[in-house]
Design goal:
With 604 residues, the chain is of the alpha+beta class. It folds into three domains: 203 residues, Glutamine Phosphoribosylpyrophosphate, subunit 1, domain 1 (4-Layer Sandwich); 215 residues, HUPs (Rossmann fold, 3-Layer(aba) Sandwich), CATH 3.40.50.620; 76 residues, no CATH class. 40% of the residues lie in helices and 15% in strands. The chain contains 26 helices and 17 strands. Strands 2-3-1-9-8-10 form a six-stranded antiparallel β-sheet, with helices on one face. A six-stranded antiparallel β-sheet has the order 4-5-6-7-11-12, covered by helices on one side. It is globular.
């Protein structure tokens, strides 16, 4: 788990300080070392968080004749099996790093080498013989990769902040901003920076001497074939698969733990991991006293006690948590206004004091249909479908859809009309004809919400504290099986995730698994009231981001409605996050902030 960055430029740049600058901006992702590679038009840099082969796994990595150079971020979970197979073909390895198998797999199996790889990864591979640079991202987009093009070539990085040295005057993209404001995230390939793109999940990009970038998707969920076997057969198949998935995810040369929320997904992971260990599993949870939101700390502690885990439960004052927002926005990089970024950041800081690897339950709801939005009332969905053709009536309402104030300046208002929905419609239309609407909804979330929101949270909030996050439910084989299941295997009336709960009864009490889903929430409504709202009302209209994109009169009406107890906390939270991001990335050059009140930051 690391940070990677580099370039393919039209003219060689030996000794260029830009690699050192990019590495410094990614130092939080890799505090254990820095390595670089420069050859001809290519420069690569790697900041290392050592997980496998602690002594010998430094990067860049090279093949036998050094015609291939690699920098990689992530974990290749089946590297021992791939290594044995490649050694039998005559390949010689220089390290015991899991990522070295990528080099030899590329040599041995050509275009389809990634079909053999199980893991989470983003990497850059320089093929000197072919005079090409190859970028790749794992199937589900667990690991990030961004790039930009200009007249001189291409630059890439694990995070947007490491691309800022190539952007003396970065600009906000109107469509990316519209996506963020309505969804709380931007959808790949869009970003908030006009000049930068996200590489799609399950994609590769190749750039050669002609300067053209050729992108190719090597995996999408739309290739999944519907499952035809019995429920009992599917449960047994899944049981066998999860045994393998957990076993390979536990490969690590450093201690690990688990974020335990008390929900189905993290509880099942805790049960599966704990039964394999010879010592108590380290688990972590968080809760909020004296706030208006649900607190699952007691539930998590009960599961930990049942499993014999060594549990740490943190209670945080919601007011103090808000002061983490500027650093969380900086760490998040590709802006996401997910409320859970703040508690996850705190958990990562606490866990990072003793561990380098933490497991998390992301993916369970998308893969096994746990969200209530997958079970909408028929009439409500039909009306949404008529209002927004081609959407299936899914993800048609954004954060600002109910806000009637004339808030936005014309350029942004135009993008907010419909462009922010385009990624959802594209995924919906791509699905095979035989798929149910439920499978289509899951696929939309697996392509957008999951990699562009939830996995941004897991990767960036943890990596900001030098911690690797592992998400076993997003092994692509688990995703393929879960997505392929018939609807009645997934849903039980108005209850979701039926298949996973039935399987989970082998490990946990039925009453826990089938309890009403409450989710994890943060008391944003409590924050944006009273004196803090008045401070926000004085500061927010003067923030450069807000002046550039919003109408002052519309913002004043929005704040006035919040004063009158009409809940406008969600849109105000989005605007606050954007203003902080703009201050840090557009005005401030990507420098990390300290722990401070976000409104005070904007007032500076």
């Amino acid at each position: 788990m690391c940070g990677i960055a580099g370039y393919y430029r039209s003219t060689p740049q030996p000794g260029s300080p830009v690699l050192a600058d990019m590495a410094q901006r990614l130092a939080h992702r890799g505090p254990d070392g820095v390595g670089s590679h420069e050859r001809g038009p290519v420069g690569l840099v790697h900041t290392r968080l050592a997980i496998i082969d602690l002594g010998g796994g430094s990067q860049p990595l090279y093949n036998e004749d050094r015609s291939l150079a690699l920098v990689a971020n992530g974990e290749i979970y089946n590297y021992p099996e791939l290594r044995r197979e490649l050694e039998a073909l005559g390949h010689r390895f220089a390290t015991h790093s899991d990522c070295e198998v990528i080099l030899h797999a590329y040599e041995a199996w050509g275009e389809h080498y990634l079909d053999r790889v199980l893991g989470m990864f983003a990497f850059a591979l320089h093929d000197a013989r072919a005079e090409a640079l190859i970028l790749a991202r794992d199937r589900l987009g667990i690991k990030p990769l961004y790039y930009l093009q200009d007249v001189h070539g291409l630059a890439f990085a694990s995070e947007l902040k490491a691309l800022l040295p190539f952007l003396p005057s970065p600009e906000v993209d109107a469509v990316g901003l519209a996506q963020f404001l309505q969804n709380n995230f931007t959808c790949a390939p869009q970003t908030l920076l006009r000049e930068a793109r996200k590489l799609m999940p399950g994609a590769t990009a190749r750039i050669g001497v002609d300067g053209a970038v050729q992108e190719r998707r090597y995996w999408t969920a739309s290739e999944v074939v519907p499952y035809a076997a019995s429920l009992e057969s599917a449960l047994e198949q899944f049981d066998t698969l999860m045994d393998e998935v957990i076993d390979i995810h536990l490969r690590s040369d450093v201690p690990f733990g688990l974020f335990l929320s008390g929900g189905v997904d993290s509880s099942l992971l805790a049960a599966l991991i704990a039964r394999r260990l010879g010592e108590p599993l380290r688990t972590f949870s968080i809760g909020f006293p004296d706030s208006s939101v649900h607190n699952e700390r007691a539930t998590a502690a009960g599961i930990a006690a049942r499993l014999g885990a060594r549990h740490s439960a943190f209670e945080v004052n919601a007011e103090e948590l808000l002061t983490r927002l500027p650093y969380a926005v900086w760490a998040g990089d590709d802006l996401s206004a997910d409320y859970a970024n703040l508690p996850v950041s705190l958990l990562a800081e606490r866990a990072g004091a003793e561990l380098k690897v933490v497991f998390s339950g992301e993916g369970g709801d998308e893969v096994f249909a746990g969200y209530g939005r997958y079970r909408p009332l028929w009439l409500k969905r039909r009306m949404a479908q008529l209002a927004h053709p081609g959407s299936g009536g899914f993800r048609t309402r954004g954060v600002f859809s109910r806000t009637n104030e004339r808030l936005f300046r014309p350029e942004l208002a135009e993008a907010l009309v419909d462009q922010w929905r385009v990624p959802f419609r594209q995924v919906w239309a791509r699905a095979p004809k035989g798929w149910s609407d439920l499978a289509r909804m899951q696929d939309v979330d697996l392509e957008t919400w999951l990699p562009d929101d939830l996995l941004v949270k897991v990767d960036r909030m943890l990596m900001a504290w030098g911690v690797e996050g592992r998400v076993p439910f997003l092994d692509h084989r688990v995703v393929e099986l879960g997505l392929a299941l018939p609807d009645d295997y997934k849903l039980d009336g108005r209850s979701g995730k039926r298949f996973l709960k039935l399987w989970g009864e082998r490990f946990l009490p039925r009453e826990h698994l089938w309890a009403h889903k409450k989710g994890f929430t943060v008391p944003v409504r409590d924050w944006l009231r009273g004196e803090r709202l008045e401070r926000l009302a004085r500061v927010l209209p003067n923030a450069p981001a807000i002046r550039r994109w919003l109408q002052p009169s519309g913002l004043a009406r929005l704040i006035e409605r919040q004063r009158r107890k009409a809940d406008r906390s969600a849109p105000l939270w989005s605007l606050l996050n954007f203003a902080v991001w703009h201050r840090l990335f557009i005005e401030g050059g990507g420098k990390p902030p300290g722990v401070q009140d976000p409104i005070a930051l904007l007032a500076q």
